């Protein structure tokens, strides 16, 4: 069996450079925006989940587990198509996309925060409380400074994944990098070149970030 | 006018009970420690010694009973005590210094920062005053030159001495020492014990849980033998350690001396 020959030609992409850069900009904007919102959600959720009050923690557990245990693609489609039916209000695609991406990554951040705090030895609490610190003081001066160091590597990993996750918003017609690629494919019928280029762009952004994350992780390990 | 009943003891514990789930760890412990006295608590592991110490400064929540340290008094009865009174608990704990088996220094703080954390954060005193007091305390435990050193660069004995200085920085009325030399290499035990001995000489009221029988004999005003959640026997060190009345105490000490002879200690 012979492999069909294909004449690769990337030159036509130059004509779409503005569309491609726009798409890349949208992808980066969703990534940074939803990481920041997700971080706020994750911090609050993760810290509140440490409470002994079950009435408070039960809904938070439900939120975290629902978002961690269902596919992001399904969540995006559900928020865009099903939620408007449930609440009777139309949700624009960019709102649904931002909401879901933030809640999704926030659920993972919440677990990172909780795990980081719980990883601090019991003895640190004992010692801090023995010199008279109140719970909030122990948290602020003793536990969090140590826990944050342990949260940084998983936080960076989750954030790198988040950049790739944003590609799923193309399914509800948010004009990110992947969506623009689909548009260009529709106009040129050259999916092989287009998706190769899209993959290359994600890689060019993410690979240096991955290296930087590893560097930070090494430095943190050395500091211990 | 002199109090006809004599001065009140510094620590007064009455009928203290504590269980973890179905396991009863303290079964009605009562203990009085006079001002300036040093009580050593000995006994087999699982006897409830550490739990008793942790109850005295309320790191554990007793189920029932009564604890008075200095002028502060707390009563407990099942179901009534809750963690709500955080501020009150914190104030109680600040008056009782505690030193732990595993030091529990704050690894992200230097020795000096460990010592000044309580005065700065809890008492809110001036940084300059806290630091000069902190340096004086580090000097007292023989670590004047280690003020800027992080715990990871200190030996076990040095860490434990920083931990003692950290507890002293709060100006506690009593010190509780929970097997403070058990995690140390044998050659580092002496430097920590001599700091404790110095505190005893200065008149600090102390409750010391220890496996160092020799040290207990030397420093303590009284030795309490604990077994199975109660204080079985308490008295002057020479009496309890040399001529125990209770068969359980005798049994423990016999096994203890045999084990030490075997290990060459």
What's the arrangement of secondary structure elements?
The complex is a heterodimer of chains A (224) and B (265).
Chain A: H1 17-48, H2 54-68, H3 72-87, H4 93-118, H5 122-130, H6 135-165, H7 177-188, H8 191-223
Chain B: E1 11-20, E2 23-33, E3 38-42, H1 49-56, E4 64-69, E5 72-76, H2 86-94, E6 96-99, H3 111-123, H4 127-140, H5 156-168, E7 174-178, H6 186-201, E8 205-209, H7 213-219, E9 222-227, E10 230-235, H8 237-242, H9 247-263
Parallel strand pairs in B: 3-8, 3-9, 6-7, 7-8
Antiparallel strand pairs in B: 1-2, 1-4, 4-5, 9-10
Helix pairs in contact in B: 3-4, 3-5, 4-5, 5-6
Q: Would you give an account of this structure?
A:
By secondary structure, chain A is mainly α. Chain A has helices at 17-48, 54-68, 72-87, 93-118, 122-130, 135-165, 177-188, 191-223. Chain A has a single domain (29-223), classed as Orthogonal Bundle (MetI-like fold). In chain A, 78% of the residues lie in helices and 0% in strands. The longest helix of chain A is centred in the last third of the chain and has 33 residues, at 191-223. By secondary structure, chain B is an alpha/beta fold. Helix content of chain B is 39%, strand content 24%. Chain B has nine helices and ten strands. Chain B has helices at residues 49-56, 86-94, 111-123, 127-140, 156-168, 186-201, 213-219, 237-242, 247-263, and strands spanning 11-20, 23-33, 38-42, 64-69, 72-76, 96-99, 174-178, 205-209, 222-227, 230-235. In chain B, the strands form two sheets. Chain B has a six-stranded mixed sheet with strand order 6-7-8-3-9-10, sandwiched between helices. A four-stranded antiparallel sheet of chain B has the order 2-1-4-5, covered by helices on one side. In chain B, β7, α6 (186-201) and β8 form a beta-alpha-beta unit.
Q: What's the CATH first level of chain A?
A: Mainly Alpha
CATH architecture of chain A: Orthogonal Bundle
* Strand order in space, largest sheet of chain B: 6-7-8-3-9-10
Estimate the global geometry of chain B from the Cα principal axes.
globular
Average pLDDT of chain B, rounded to a whole number, is: 90
Helix content of chain B: 25-40%
Instruction: Predict the CATH topology of chain A.
Output: MetI-like fold
Largest β-sheet summary of chain A: none
Radius of gyration of chain B, Cα only, in angstroms?
A: 19 Å
Round the mean pLDDT of chain A to the nearest integer and report it: 94
Number of structural domains of chain A: 1
Globally, the shape of chain A reads globular
Q: Level of helix content of chain A?
A: over 70%
Q: What is the SS-derived class of chain A?
A: mainly alpha
Distance between the termini of chain A: 58 Å
Unreliable residue runs of chain B: none
Order of helix and strand elements from N to C terminus of chain A? HHHHHHHH
């Amino acid at each position: 069996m012979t492999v069909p020959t294909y004449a690769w030609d990337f030159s036509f992409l130059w004509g779409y450079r503005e569309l491609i850069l726009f798409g890349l900009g949208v992808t980066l904007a969703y990534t940074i925006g939803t990481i920041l919102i997700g971080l706020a959600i994750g911090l609050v959720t993760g810290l509140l989940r440490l409470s002994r009050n079950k009435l408070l923690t039960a809904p938070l557990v439900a939120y975290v587990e629902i978002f961690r245990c269902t596919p992001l693609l399904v969540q995006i489609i559900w928020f865009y198509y099903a939620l408007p039916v449930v609440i009777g209000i139309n949700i624009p695609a960019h709102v649904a996309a931002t909401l879901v991406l933030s809640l999704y990554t926030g659920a993972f951040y919440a677990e990172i925060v909780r795990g980081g705090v719980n990883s601090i030895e019991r003895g640190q609490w004992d010692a801090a409380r023995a010199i008279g610190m109140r719970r909030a003081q122990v948290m602020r001066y003793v536990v969090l400074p140590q826990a944050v160091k342990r949260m940084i590597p998983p936080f960076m990993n989750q954030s790198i994944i988040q950049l790739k996750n944003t590609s799923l918003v193309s399914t509800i017609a948010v004009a990110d990098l992947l969506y623009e690629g689909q548009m260009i494919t529709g106009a040129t019928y050259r999916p092989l070149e287009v998706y190769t280029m899209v993959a290359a762009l994600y890689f060019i952004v993410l690979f240096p970030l991955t290296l930087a994350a590893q560097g930070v992780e090494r430095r943190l390990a050395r500091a211990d | 006018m002199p109090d006809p009943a004599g001065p009140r003891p510094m620590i007064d514990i009455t009928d203290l009970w504590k269980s973890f789930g179905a396991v009863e760890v303290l079964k009605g412990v009562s203990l009085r420690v006079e001002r300036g006295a040093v009580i050593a608590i000995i006994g087999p592991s699982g006897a409830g010694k550490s739990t008793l110490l942790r109850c005295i400064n309320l790191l554990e929540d007793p189920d029932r009973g009564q604890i008075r340290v200095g002028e502060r008094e707390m009563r407990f009865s099942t179901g009534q005590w809750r963690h709500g009174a955080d501020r009150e608990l914190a104030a109680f704990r600040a008056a009782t210094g505690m030193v732990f088996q595993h030091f529990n220094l704050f690894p992200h703080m230097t020795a000096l920062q460990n010592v000044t954390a309580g005065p700065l954060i809890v008492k809110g005193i001036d940084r300059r005053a806290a630091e000069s007091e902190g340096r004086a305390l580090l000097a007292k435990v023989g670590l004047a030159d280690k003020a800027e050193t992080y715990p990871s660069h200190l030996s076990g004995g040095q860490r434990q001495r920083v931990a003692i200085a950290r507890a002293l920085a709060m100006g506690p009325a009593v010190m509780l020492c929970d097997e403070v030399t058990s995690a140390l290499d044998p050659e580092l035990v002496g430097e920590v014990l001599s700091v404790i001995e110095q505190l005893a000489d200065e008149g600090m009221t102390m409750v010391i849980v220890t496996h160092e029988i020799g040290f207990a004999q030397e420093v303590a005003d009284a030795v309490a033998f604990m077994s199975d959640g109660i204080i079985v026997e308490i008295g002057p060190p020479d009496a309890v350690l040399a001529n125990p009345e209770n068969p359980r105490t005798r049994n423990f000490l016999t096994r203890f001396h045999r084990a030490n002879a075997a290990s060459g200690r």
